Amino acid sequence: MRSSLIDTLFLSEKRKELLLFLKNGAKSSDEIKVAFDFPWKSMIPQIKKLVEWDLITYYKGTCTLTPMGKVIVRNMEDLLATLEIHERYRSYWLKHDLRPIPDELLYRIGELSNCEICEPQMPDIFEQQEDMLQRIDGSERIMAFIPVHHPAQLIIYSGLMEKGTMLDLIITEDVYRTIRGEIPQNHNILLTDNPIFASLKKEYEKDINNLFKDERSNIFVYKGQVRPLDLIVSEKFFSMALPGNQGKYDSTTISSSEDSAILWGKELFDHYKDRSEKIT
Question: Which residue ranges does the record assign to the Methanogenesis regulatory protein FilR1 middle domain (predicted)?
């Protein structure tokens, strides 16, 4: 009995790997022998099955994907990447709210397959911040979404702007009101009469003014209803932190320097920017 196409694609590691190997062009039998640690005799039945399903052609010792084979391999590759990231980070997806990711990007979550998840504990959180700063330092442009007021982040972005970095920053309405002093502050650094903290407060206020007045910054206020996520994207780095299922944010981040993840992150930022009001 002839096996199904699904069985043909996924029940044999040899067939799956051969199809993926051919995605960038035709390969000779010699190239296939070098690339795979399999006896050539064991590859012949696999090639025959793929030819039977019109996924590849085999002519004069050369394997080539058919037009439909190219389509199937492209979709198979996306599915495999999605399955991989689900399996590898299943605990993270289970504990965090995925609703901040729009469907069109969630369907492409496999583009993050080479990302790393960092779940630091104190005092590793400070090392995480230092690592993030090193990765974005020197960027031409940074796109960021801050869902929760954190003075340190604003100070970092202000400092990077002084080095010439362009900044596109989205903040929530709550963060905007906090920054502008329209609601009581909950940060001791802003309330204390201690002269040292008073000096820090003055420096912080200077950084905030820089963010709002510098021509290198574009500030947006998010007006949407979906609870947003913490996001940083530059031309060389991507990082995001989803809220937990209970609505609280933790220090766990997903990050990558891969081009596919950076592009995915830029599209995510644009999604929220389109739902925000520009104020500077």
Answer: 191-275
**pLDDT (tens digit, 9 = 90+) per residue, 209-236?**
878 888 899 999 998 888 889 999 999 9
Write the single-letter amino acid at 129: Q
d(CA 170, CA 272): 8
Comparing 188 with 32, the larger pLDDT belongs to: 32
Q: Is 31 exposed, middle or buried (0-12, 13-18, 19+ CB in 10 A)?
A: middle
> What is the per-residue burial (b if ≥16 Cβ within 10 Å, else e) of 212-244?
eebeebbbbbbeeeeebbbbbbbeebbbbbbbe
CA-based radius of gyration for the chain = 25
Q: What 3-state class would DSSP assign to 130?
A: helix
pTM for the whole thing? 0.81
CA distance 210 to 90: 41
Domains of the chain in start order, with CATH, are 5-78 (1.10.10.10), 101-278 (3.30.870.10)
Q: How far is CA 109 from CA 37, 102, 251, in A?
A: 31, 11, 21
